Amino acid sequence: MSKQHYFILASLITLLYWFLDAYTSVSLYGSSLIDEILLQTPHTLIFIKLLTAGLLFTLTLTPLFFKQRMDKNAPIPPNEFAELQRISDILFSSLSTRINVIKALEMLEESLHLESSLLFIYNKESLSLYNENEFIKATFRSKEILPFRTNPSRSAVETFAINCFLEKRMTSKESVKVENRPVTLFSFALKEPRSETALGNLVLASSNAKFLEEQTDMIEKCTQMLTFALSIAAKKELLQNLNSQYSSDTTSHFDKVLNIINFSKVQEHIDQEYKRHKRYHTQLTLVLIDITMLKNLTKVFPAEVVTTLKKDFIQLVIKHTREVDIFGKWSNDQFALLLPDVDFRAGQRVAKKLQAILDETKFARVGKISCSYGITSISPKDTIGSFKARAESALVAASAKEGNAIEVKLQTTELNH
């Protein structure tokens, strides 16, 4: 009911009281109805009647005051077009897909006043969390979830995510309690139009279910954009793997243009050092390096300038590292430095040394550059996969700080610089 309707109702109730009270006095005292209405009789208590009418009018308007107060506290609905434009700009910018997706999720949390957003990527028999935040840390023991294993200590949020995975739900909604606070979980499957299987699942946690339900259209459009971005990234990775698989040993192991070993050869060295670690308990550190905004440089300078930059950078790193250290390509724009027989502290020292050198070095036509460094050391419980994944996670965290940052991630602790 609008504000105007409340005032009309209050006026009608007050007039009705005024008329009925006057009619009652006419019955009691035999006076004229007009005199009673105009308060012109000797027995009329003018002050009492006016006070009663005023109180009645005010009490009728009371719900309006409560409604206005509630409206003030209610979250403001986002501008759907503007928010989707912002998310799209981040999601499809020139940075790596992972960083873009994580930033897009943070924007979605802000615009929809969410407790948290949780993005799950589906594997054949498991699902893994793509992003990380305090809500996730409080409700998940691990970012890798194995739904077919019995675990009585699962949280309500973990159980909800597993049920969505097992039952192949397209959308779902459930109310749970997180640290004794009521939270509603909404899930949206990330599925391409012509695909039979979902890439993953987006779960939104909100303390205001009604508000979130009103933004369903915006969420579904955002889900479609996330699906497209993740699908393109998955296909790109598959194509790279196929190219690597069907290329010759020489091509797959060595980049003739940059004069450096490729990812497959770096992988071989990691495998060898991992076996040595298992047998002799040796130490091993992996440093992943990303030249800040390298993709943007390709838009400004010709390809040969960027290639020259990479060659000069490679020679600079090789010059300032040990002969036993292994330096190679990790991806087209990222590099890996494998440090045998040392822990993460040596990796930190190398990264800081390179920071200082790059700060004093100017590359032809490009000028000064900076890098992001993701560092990890192997632990007895590591697999090769967890060792590499932790280094990549550290690099993502460092890159999110917009360059010239060092991030160390170990199995149990994280160190920021």
From TrEMBL:
EC number: 2.7.7.65
Limits of the GGDEF domain: 282-411
Keyword Calcium annotated: no
One term of GO molecular function: diguanylate cyclase activity
Highest taxon of the lineage: Bacteria
Entry keywords, A to Z: Membrane, Transmembrane, Transmembrane helix
Pfam families membership: GGDEF
PROSITE patterns referenced in this protein's UniProt entry, alphabetically: GGDEF
Transmembrane segments: 46-66
Catalytic activity: 2 GTP = 3',3'-c-di-GMP + 2 diphosphate
Name listed for the protein in its UniProt record: diguanylate cyclase
